[in-house]
């Protein structure tokens, strides 16, 4: 039993969960000094995670939980970071611990559903690869695999298969829009804009391509690409209202100094993302909403010129 407890302690990144049954376990409440240290470590971890420094964020949130193992938001952040690091079992344990500590909290079940979706995607990707092996010349098969890889946040691998699909059919609008999503996500906005424009030329109402185009125009850190007024004009001219499009429109309003409209549109984007089950996007929009409420705009990270 002692060996099993030691193993669990290591696997849970320092989370003190003890060896009792789920019904018997009681959290050990920290003193005031430990609480302050935990909060400082959590705040640092959140900033690191927001900057994409996931390994460092994982270390900091583990430190926060060593100081205060009852900090629910730290367990949630730990789960998010571990999921992004592709450590799905560890992420699931972190979300489960958050649910144990606060059974009424709405987020742990949503995060656990996301982890389960990642596991399903892994199985679907394996099956798609097997299907592709039997028909390697199939453009639709390459595109189908690329869509799965993109949802799994494997953008570089998705680009390979979108590229192969487009070599077989240069007029595949869905593959062009997928390329746009992957490239913009990697910071390669110039190439992303090209593929978004191609997709929209072929399918003028493609919501995925339009969302990426608007996002670059609204938020790019490259002055030659950023054009919020153009983004507003394009967004207001269409009836398509995906979470990504609403998010981009909100960012464009803020960039144009129209902060009240930005905040209202961001709230609509949060509702749309939550309804679609895209809780990661909803949380990201919530962070941008806080900027708009302070009358600040959102500018994306540096652009990769490739």
Description:
Residues 1-24 have low confidence and may be disordered. With 306 residues, the protein is mainly alpha-helical. The chain has helices at 2-11, 32-50, 54-67, 72-84, 88-101, 107-134, 139-151, 155-168, 173-185, 189-202, 207-219, 228-236, 243-255, 259-275, 279-293. Among the domains are: 2-105, Serine Threonine Protein Phosphatase 5, Tetratricopeptide repeat, CATH 1.25.40; 209-306. The protein is globular. Helix content is 72%, strand content 0%.
Measured on Cα atoms, how large is the radius of gyration? 22 Å
Strand-residue proportion:
under 5%
Quantity of strands, as a count: 0
CATH topology type of the domain at 2-105: Serine Threonine Protein Phosphatase 5, Tetratricopeptide repeat
Q: How would a crystallographer describe the biggest sheet?
A: none
Class by SSE composition: mainly alpha
The CATH architecture of the domain at 2-105: Alpha Horseshoe
Outline the secondary-structure elements:
Layout: H1 2-11, H2 32-50, H3 54-67, H4 72-84, H5 88-101, H6 107-134, H7 139-151, H8 155-168, H9 173-185, H10 189-202, H11 207-219, H12 228-236, H13 243-255, H14 259-275, H15 279-293
Helix pairs in contact: 2-3, 2-4, 3-4, 4-5, 4-6, 5-6, 6-7, 7-8, 7-9, 8-9, 9-10, 9-11, 10-11, 11-12, 11-13, 12-13, 13-14, 13-15, 14-15
What is this structure, in a nutshell?
The chain has 306 residues and is mainly alpha-helical.
């Amino acid at each position: 039993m002692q060996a099993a407890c030691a193993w669990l302690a290591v696997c849970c990144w320092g989370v003190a969960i003890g060896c009792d049954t789920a019904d018997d376990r009681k959290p050990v409440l920290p003193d005031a000094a430990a609480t302050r240290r935990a909060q400082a470590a959590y705040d640092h971890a959140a900033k690191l995670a927001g900057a994409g420094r996931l390994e460092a964020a994982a270390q900091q949130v583990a430190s926060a939980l060593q100081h205060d193992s009852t900090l629910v938001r730290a367990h949630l952040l730990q789960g998010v970071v571990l999921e992004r690091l592709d450590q799905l079992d560890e992420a699931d344990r972190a979300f489960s611990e958050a649910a144990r500590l606060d059974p009424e909290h709405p987020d742990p079940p949503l995060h656990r559903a996301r982890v389960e979706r990642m596991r399903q995607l892994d199985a679907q990707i394996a099956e798609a690869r097997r299907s592709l092996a039997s028909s390697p010349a199939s453009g639709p098969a390459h595109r189908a695999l690329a869509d799965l890889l993109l949802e799994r946040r494997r953008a570089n691998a998705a680009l390979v298969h979108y590229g192969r699909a487009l070599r077989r059919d240069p007029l595949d609008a869905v593959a062009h829009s997928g390329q746009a999503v992957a490239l913009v996500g990697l910071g390669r906005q110039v190439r992303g804009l090209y593929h978004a424009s191609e997709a929209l030329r072929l399918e003028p109402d493609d919501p995925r391509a339009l969302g990426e185009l608007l996002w670059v125009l609204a938020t790019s850190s490259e002055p030659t690409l950023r054009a919020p007024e153009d983004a507003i004009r394009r967004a207001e001219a269409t009836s398509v209202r995906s979470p990504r499009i609403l998010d981009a429109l909100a960012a464009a309003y803020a960039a144009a100094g129209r902060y009240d409209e930005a905040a209202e549109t961001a709230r609509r984007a949060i509702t749309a993302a939550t309804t679609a089950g895209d809780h990661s996007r909803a949380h990201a929009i919530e962070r941008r909403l806080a900027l708009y409420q302070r009358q600040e705009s959102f500018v994306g990270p540096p652009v990769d010129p490739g």
